[in-house]
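Why do we care about 3D structure at all? Because function follows from shape, and shape follows, mostly, from sequence. That is the central idea of this module. The next example makes it concrete: a single protein chain, its amino acid sequence, and then its structure expressed as C-alpha cells.
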Amino acid sequence: MSKVFFASARARKWRYSDSMPGKLESLLAGSIKEKYFDKDEWVAVKTHFGSDGAHRIVRPVFLRIIADAVKNSGAKPFVTDTVRIKGLDYLEVANRNGINHLSVGAPVVLADGLYGNDNIVIKAGEILNEVAIASVIHDASAMIVCSHVKGHINAGYAGAIKNLAMGGVSGRHRSCGWKCGRGSMHTLGEGLFKWDSEKCILCNQCAEICPLDCIEFKDARFEYDSERCWRCGRCTRVCPEGALTFPGDDLIFLKSLPEAAKAVLSTFRPDKVLYINFLTEIQPECDCMPAADVPVVQDIGILVSDDLVAVEMASIDMIRKQAPLPSSLASDQAVKAGQDILLDIHKKPYMTTIDEAVRLGLGSLEYELVEI
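And the structure:
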C-alpha cells in the first residue's frame, strides 16, 4: 500500500511550523531523500505558470520551498512548464504571477522552447499512437510534479495526471503538428472546427483568446489557420452562444490523459519522480484560462507521494468530503454537501482517468494517509 503524506491547510497555532509553508518544509524533509535525487542531478519542478487573469496557481513561496529542499539534498532544481501561449509572453505571465529565478530560487525555463516545438516524439499507446514530449522533460533524469488541483471543463478533475499529460506534451511538433501534440488529446479526430453562423453573434471573444492569433473574421465569416492552430480549445470554451465546436469524445479523452502521462513518465526511472498536489484555491476551471473563478470548496492542504494514482485518489477522496462554498459555481448549481462536487459541476466521469491509470500500471488506488 502506497503512502501519501498530508499536511492540513488549517493553522491551529500561531507559529511558522503550523503554517502551510512550514508544513510543506516538514513534508519534504521526510519525502525528498537521497533515494530520489543524486548529487548535482538536475531536477525538473514541473508546475503551471498560469495565465493573465488566472492567478490561483501554486504560489511561488511553495515553489521556493520545494527548490530549496531539492538543493538541500545536493541536487539542482529548475522550475518548468510547456508553452501555452507564445513563449516570451508566457515567461512574462510567469513573472507577473510571481514565478521567476529570484522568487523561486531556481532557473525558470520553458520545457519545449520559446516556440513550443522543441520536443521529441515517442510511442504512446492505442489511443494517441505517439506524442511529442517536451525535450527538457524528456531529457531530465528526475522530476517533481507540482500540481494545483482543480476542476476542468473537459477532464472534470485536474491534478497530477493532467499536469503530466497536457503539461509534459507540447502543443505541436515541427513535422506532425498538433496531431502528436496535446491537441490530439483535445480533439481525438480530424480536429476541424465547426462554426454555426446562425448562432454566432460576432463578439470576437474566440479571436481575442486565441494564444496564437489564428482566428479572424473576414466579411463576418469565421476563419482560422489550421496549420498553426494547436487545438487548445479555448475559443470553443469562451463562445457564449455555442457557435464554435470541434469533435471530441469524453470517455476517449479521459482515457488519453493517463496514456499521455505514461508516455511522459516512460523517460524516467520510477524512483525518480515525486508528486505534490496542492489542494488550495480549488477553482472550477483550468489555470490556462484568462480568469479564475472563486474556489468551489475550502482549502484542504498539501499531499506528497511517489505513487501517481495514490496521490490523485487521496486528493479526490478529500474533495468529495468537502461542503461546497457559497457564492461559487458549486452553489450556483445547487450542489449539496456529500455530493461529488467536481462531478456534479462538470458532468465528466473523471474516475475513468483514474481507472485507466491503474490499468496502465501508473499506481495503486489503495493508500495509507500519513498526516504530519
